[in-house]
Please model this.
Amino acid sequence: MGWLGLDDTDTVSDGCTTYTLHCLLESLPEDVEASIPSLVRLWPFAQQRTRGNAAVAVELTTNDEQALLTFLEEFWNEHLLPLKGGIGASEHEREQSPTDPGMVWFREKPDDASFYFDTVQRHVSIEEAPHPTRSWGGQGCIGAIAAVVWPKHSITWEAIAWREETQWSSKARSVCQHTLDEVATNDETFMSRDPRTERSLISPRGTCPVLFGVRAKTQANASSAGRTLASAPETEPIIGMRVFATNQASDDHLKEAIESTVRTIEVLSRGTTKITTEHGDWLAFAQSGNVKLLAQSLHPGDCIAAFGLEPEQGVLHIEKLSLRHATPMRVRPTCSECQRTMKSMGTGQGVRCPKCKNRSPDAWIEVERQIEANEWVEPPVDARRHLARPLAWYIDRDPINPGNA
Ligand SMILES: [Zn+2]
Model:
C-alpha cells in the first residue's frame, strides 16, 4: 500500500499529466490495484508551472512493493525522463519553463496536510516538502508531493477523456454540442458551459491529448456525464476516460477575507480597476465582470472586503469582492423655490441657485447610494480559476460564512 504522485510531464503544447498517469495505470503489474486518482490544482502563479498547473496522485495497493518500485523505475526511465527539458511550441508570449518531470512514492501518506495548503497558497521550494520513500526527477516532485498530501477535505470530480493520438496536434475537437447542452442543465455538473455565450468550457483550446473534462459535485455524476458525452454520435472517438477526485472549486488557494477602506479608484487599460486601500492595492481585472463593475462604483471611504491572491507583496488580485459599508454621497441642497440643485459660490461663499439666483449658506446633504451592501460578487464562469468555489455553493452566497449551501 502506498501513494504515487506525478507532476510536470507536459509542455504548453504537448502532453498532459492526467494522460501520463492514465498510461501508467493501464500498464501496472497485474497484482497492483489502483484507487480513484486525484487531480490537484496548485498555486496559479508558480514560477515554473507548465500549462494546467495540475498534479496527479493515486493510491496503489500491492503485496510486492519491490516489484512495483521496479516497474515505476522502468516507467520513469522509458516514458518520463525523456520529457525533461522539453518546451512546447507556443503562440503565447508567456515565458515557459522547460518540463522538469517529477514522480514520488510514499509508503505511507504523510499526516500533515500543511504542505498541500502551502503549495496552493504560495510559492514553495522542494526543501519544505515531506520526504518521499522514493523520488525521481526534479521540480515536478513539488506538485507530485502536494497531490499525495492533499487531505481531500473538499472534493469535486472530473471525468477526463483523451482523444486518439492522430488528433493531438489539432486544436479542433468534436464534442456533441447538443449532448453537452443536456449535461450542462444537470445541477450536479458545473462549469460545463458559459451561460452567457453558450460556449463550451469542457475542452482545452490547445494541442494536447485531452478531448474534454466534465466537472461534477459527485463521482457518479462525473462518471455518467463523461459516458454520455463520450458515447454521443457527434463526439469523436476516445482512447480512454477516467474520473478524478479534484480540489477544483474548493477555494483552498484563498486565505481569509481582508477588510479595508477605499482611498482611491483608478481605471486602467481595458477596464482593469485598481482600488487603493489602506491595505495596499487591490486589482479587479478587465475580464472579472461584476467584480470590476463593483470596483468601479466604489467611492473613497467605502469599507470593502475581498478574497484574492497576493502574487507580490501588497498587491491583491481580487477573486471575490463585497461592499460592507457605503459612504453616503454628499450633494448640494436643492433650491427651495425652483428645486434646481444649488451651486457653490466658492469656499465659504455659500451656494446659489443657477436659475433664480436664490442664495443660502454653504451646505452639503448626505444621500444614501443606490448600491447593495454585503452582496458578494465573483467573475463570470469563463474567467474563474479552476480552484474558485462558486458563490452559490456558500450559505447565503457569503464566503465568510463557511459550510455548504
Ligand atoms: Zn431657484
